[in-house]
Design a protein that fits this description.
It comes from Thermophilibacter provencensis. By secondary structure, the protein is of the alpha+beta class. It has 18 helices and 30 strands. The strands form 8 sheets. An 8-stranded mixed beta sheet has the order 13-17-18-25-22-21-19-20. A hairpin with a 2-residue loop joins strand 6 (123-127) and strand 7. The relative contact order is 0.08.
């Protein structure tokens, strides 16, 4: 595919940039279509994204765009594509660029020019009557846009600032081929079916209420799921040499000033007044973990200390950003804080990576790694940051792990390795992380006594496996479409008597399953067996159904239907033994 760069030259587009260029050009073509249909529309930002593209539009008073308007906009986009307009590019000095945008009534572009560095090149792309300030690159002709679709509309503040005007954000997606678009739309449709909010309601896992926006309620099935995850977490951490602690949810504001969180995170923190002093509800667990370490002297022989905590944290999120379990205002974070000597650092990072790797393998997740480096608002010296980043690189190289560098996305106190896991629909989620911190031990004056009697400063590692337990449950719901592995499933076996004649035997079967430690639910309703099977498959989603009719009563066995919808006759004791083994091994 040929593309037009902002210096005017045309070249073959690198394969890994094709989708981005197609989407960027689609954003311009969509804006041109909107301008034709709504001549008073004023445009803000319109970038390509990982999932598609969008354009933020300021519409005249009283004018609204909804999804009902998409067919008309898409039809106009197709018309522009058919016109096969040529993309051209030109550059203007700052004053002339401002004059051009003022002349065209583009007040947001004028403001954007004012935000650019003094030495910035200001380039424009044009197709037909439409001109847009842009760095490119773009397609050479509109006819090269083969496959696109508008996907949603929402509100967005100009520059993401709630004090600015709310604009209309029109979202879309585009691909180089129709086949790619069709596959993408198929996955979107599948994602809708797997929406954890929908499945969470159906399976009675969690609920949300207007009385507590962003604060999830876990229902009995959800608590079963959550507790199974935490039992697994505790087992693997105990085996890996971790101890478990618990720290207070509310602590004095001065603690958060010392840790550095107040300066970097105060807008996301809740606070309250106790005894005329300001206290903060913790948004993360690390300062509490530091206080536990600092509570007594330590020898070099005690290190590494690996302290885990399932801590309930609270963070203020904008109401419009809340999204099921994925974005909430309170959640349990499966934190651990490791205090290590310098000579232990590489081995401890390797141990953490291997532990997180084993967790994701358990759930069938693939993942990729990102090394996130020093952000602009960081704490600490250049020397400490260099040491920290080098330590993480060395550990990854010793592990032979591939990784990409994410410049400037580290925590304010140190660089980190992030785990981006891939679910069954190919979507990625950032969950696990290991963060290296030289700063907090300095801020809290942490020490240990070395072999020669001298005082030394430990290095601190922050790490999570699941991340937010609530968010991880949301990911698992969508990954498995509610069809959890047997060890996690809230209902492991659904017992379905065919009629009243088999009900007593079905009760006895259920009692025997429960006595064996298997989570079993008996459906005694006077409904047809076909209805019961369909409801179990679509609502409870158990790994196994036991269908109990007169034949099973007479033979003293059970008919087992698994998720393949195949039904086989089994002796009950043999079935119980197999299920118990499956649960014990967490298959």
């Amino acid at each position: 595919m040929k593309v037009l760069y902002n210096d005017g030259h045309i070249d073959e587009c690198p394969a890994d940039e094709v989708t981005h260029v197609v989407r960027h050009s689609a954003a311009h073509i969509m804006a041109q279509a909107v301008k034709r249909l709504y001549p008073e529309a004023d445009f803000a930002y319109g970038p390509a994204t990982d999932n598609g593209f969008y354009y933020d539009v300021d519409l005249p008073e009283g004018v609204k765009i909804s999804e009902e308007d998409f067919p008309a906009i898409e039809a106009e986009m197709k018309k522009i594509v058919k016109e096969n307009l040529k993309f051209t590019v030109f550059e203007l000095p700052r004053e002339e660029a401002v004059a051009l945008m003022q002349e065209r009534g583009e007040k947001y572009k004028v403001e954007h020019i004012g935000d650019l560095p003094d030495d910035a090149r200001i380039t424009f792309y044009q197709q037909g009557e439409y001109i847009d300030m842009c760095v490119g690159p773009h397609l050479t002709y509109t006819k090269a846009l083969k496959a696109f679709k508008l996907t949603g509309v929402s509100g967005a503040y100009w520059k993401g600032d709630k004090n600015n005007k709310m604009l209309t954000r029109i979202n879309g997606t585009a691909f180089a081929t129709k086949e790619e678009l069709d596959e993408h739309l198929r996955l979107l449709e599948e994602a809708k079916k797997r929406d954890h909010r929908k499945i969470g309601r159906e399976m009675d896992i969690f609920m949300m209420r207007d009385e507590a926006p962003g604060f999830p309620f876990f229902l009995p099935n959800g608590m079963t799921l959550k507790n199974e995850l935490l039992t697994y977490w505790r087992e693997i951490h105990r085996a890996a040499g971790y101890v478990e602690i618990s720290t207070p949810m509310i602590m004095n504001k001065e603690l958060w000033k010392t840790s550095g969180h107040w300066d970097h995170y105060k807008d996301n923190m809740y606070s309250t007044i106790i005894d005329d002093e300001e206290y903060c509800i913790k948004p993360m667990n690390c300062p509490g973990g530091v206080l536990v370490y600092a509570s007594k002297p330590h020898s070099y022989r005690e290190l590494p200390i690996r302290a885990g905590e399932i801590g309930l944290v609270h963070r203020h999120e904008m109401r419009g950003a809340l999204h099921g379990l994925f974005r909430v205002r309170c959640f349990n974070q499966d934190d651990a804080h490791l205090f290590v000597r310098p000579d232990q650092l590489t081995d401890e990072i390797i141990g953490v990576v291997n532990l997180i790797d084993s967790v994701y393998e358990k759930f069938g997740f693939n993942y990729h790694l990102e090394l996130s480096t020093r952000p602009e608002d960081s704490m600490g010296s250049d020397e400490d940051w260099e040491r920290a980043e080098s330590a993480l690189r060395l550990a990854l190289e010793k592990l032979g792990k591939d990784y990409v560098v994410n410049e400037g996305d580290g925590a304010f106190y140190g660089p980190k390795i992030d785990f981006h896991l891939e679910d069954s629909l190919g979507r990625t989620w950032q969950c696990g992380t290991v963060q290296l911190d030289f700063q907090m031990p300095i801020n809290f004056d942490l020490e240990y006594t070395d072999a020669d009697g001298s005082k030394k400063r430990p290095i601190m590692l922050h790490r999570v496996c699941f991340g937010s337990i609530e968010r991880f449950i949301g990911i698992l719901i969508e990954h498995f479409a509610g069809k959890f592995p047997t060890w996690l499933a809230p209902c492991q076996v659904k017992v379905l008597p065919v009629s009243e004649k088999s009900r007593d035997y079905a009760r006895a079967v259920t009692e025997k399953l429960e006595a064996a430690g298997i989570r079993a639910v008996l459906d005694e309703r006077d409904e047809k067996i076909g209805y019961k099977i369909r409801e179990a498959r679509n609502i409870d989603r158990p790994p196994y159904m036991l269908i109990i009719g007169e034949q099973e009563v007479e033979a003293g066995n059970v008919s087992v239907r698994d998720r393949s919808n195949e039904t086989v006759t089994r002796e009950l004791d043999d079935f119980i033994a197999d299920v118990r083994a499956e649960i014990a091994e967490r298959r």
